[in-house]
Write a structure and sequence with these properties.
single chain; mainly alpha; Fumarase C, Chain B, domain 1; Fumarase C, Chain A, domain 2; Ribonucleotide Reductase Protein R1, domain 1; 3 domains; 4% strand
């Protein structure tokens, strides 16, 4: 008989049982479920709701079950529906009727809310750690390419000169924001829902703060209905994960483009590339392409969660069982992508000469030419028109701004002097942009140091927490 079967005269139909069961995916919450039950049992004993000896017996039984699960000695049953019922059934089988006291003063509604929050807190820490590794990899590569000049693009057209280091730090800023979003999500969800009961708490004199302290939550949920019906934290996590994947996908797209023969800015290591079954010359960026493709999968998880919750009345509804697979898949996908993307990025080769050659074409120093005239007293709009005429001349004659003669320059403006050639050199163009956030070497070095300090602050925080 089901643990909840007292009211029923018939056994659950096998089709309904299979449809209703969630153990095939929520089994991964076993550690959170057991640790939450241990804290709950301890509180029941300390408050006198059950005998202390019974609480000790329950805790010891749960600890043995936890170890047996880790050792692969436990088989879960769909008959018991979910991880909560499976653990409770195992406990009762092992320690007898005392095990039946564990569920005093709680419901599966607040139990699953607790387990899910504990799981997501753990995974936020895990994903954050991997992102910090990516930040370090970006900083390391950027330090190696502070002088590697390349064209920057707008509309996929060569626009202005920058450096590969400057470009990499743009992604470092994106991932810094991703980490911030994960931290914000963690802080908002760091509330213990246990004690909410099914929706209206309990008549037992429980001590929610005792359980909160035992499980490491910052606060307790303020309203019992919200405590069991809220899944904002899961939606917020899925949103943060979706944005991470969007950033990874943009990065992947550029790696794919830049590894093509048309660009040849980068070359992936053989260990992170694949070949063709028919074309022997091919070297395919499959890791980057799959990362780009899996982005839609994570977006799908976010849409799934939003759709599940959009019309649900308070408080708990069985629809909410569908939240877990979406979160599990999103977390797994992001971690899988990051764990293969980082070594792919770390081992790629940068073709400095190709980047420099590309930067030499496309008139990416045209803005600098206009700025040169402006500094000589020519109004910017007039300078813009003058340089536009020069570029038009270059396009017709096959010249570049650097190869034009002084006679060519003087023909359109007397403001040009011999110093125009130095002003148009790519190195001058890059280092002349010596403003906060710019591509000048000193500024990019500051950007790198900022990210390194940001990443290091998490290590210091971990050390401090470990000390305490």
């Amino acid at each position: 008989m089901k643990l909840w079967g007292g009211r029923f005269q018939k056994e659950t139909d096998s089709v309904v049982n299979d449809f209703n069961s969630s153990i095939q995916f929520d089994f991964r919450l076993y550690e959170e479920d057991i640790n939450g039950s241990i804290a709950h049992a301890f509180m029941l004993g300390e408050t006198g709701i059950i005998e202390k000896a019974e609480a000790v017996k329950i805790i010891e039984g749960l600890e043995r079950i936890l170890q047996d699960i880790k050792d692969g000695k436990v088989e879960f049953s769909a008959e018991n529906e979910d991880i909560h019922m499976n653990v409770e059934r195992l406990l009762t089988e092992r320690i007898g009727d005392t095990g039946k006291r564990l569920h005093t003063a709680r419901s599966r509604n607040d139990q699953v809310a607790l387990d899910f929050r504990m799981y997501i807190k753990k995974e936020i820490i895990s994903v954050t750690g991997i992102l910090l590794s990516l930040e370090k990899a970006l900083c390391k590569k950027a330090r190696q390419h502070l002088k590697t000049v390349m064209p920057g693009y707008t509309h996929m057209q060569r626009a202005q000169p920058t450096t590969y280091a400057h470009y990499l730090m743009a992604y470092a800023e994106m991932f810094r924001r991703d980490i911030g979003r994960l931290c914000d999500c963690y802080d908002r969800m760091d509330e213990l829902p246990l004690g909410s009961g099914a929706l209206s708490a309990t008549t037992y004199p429980i001590d929610r703060d005792m359980v909160r302290n035992a499980l490491g939550f910052k606060r307790i949920t303020a309203n019992s209905v919200d405590g069991v019906s809220d899944r904002d934290f899961a939606i917020e996590l899925a949103s943060a994960l979706s944005i991470i994947m969007m950033h990874l996908s943009r990065f992947s797209e550029e790696i794919i483009l830049w590894c093509s023969w048309e660009f040849k800015f980068l070359e992936l290591d053989d260990a992170f590339s694949t070949g063709s079954s028919i074309m022997p010359q091919k070297k395919n960026p499959d890791v980057a392409e799959l990362t780009r493709g899996k982005t839609g999968r994570v977006y799908g998880s976010l849409i799934t969660l939003l759709t599940i919750m959009k019309s649900l009345p308070l408080a708990y509804n069985k629809d909410m069982q569908e939240d877990k697979e979406a979160v599990f898949d999103a977390v797994d996908t992001v971690k899988q992508c990051l764990n293969v993307f980082i070594p792919m990025f770390e081992t790629l080769t940068v073709n400095k000469d190709r980047m420099r050659m590309a930067a030499s074409g496309g008139f990416i120093n045209a803005t600098d030419c206009a700025d040169y005239l402006t500094k000589k007293g020519v109004p910017f709009r007039d300078a813009y028109t003058i340089v536009g005429r020069l570029v038009n001349t270059c396009v017709r004659t096959g010249e570049t701004l650097e190869t034009l003669t002084m006679k060519d320059y003087r023909a359109v403006s007397e403001a040009f002097g011999d110093d125009i050639y130095e002003a148009l050199s790519l190195r001058t163009c890059v280092n002349g942009r010596n403003v906060p956030g710019g591509p000048a070497e000193d500024e990019v070095t500051s950007q790198i140091e900022s990210i390194e300090e940001f990443a290091g602050s998490f290590e210091k925080k971990d050390e401090k927490e470990n000390i305490h």
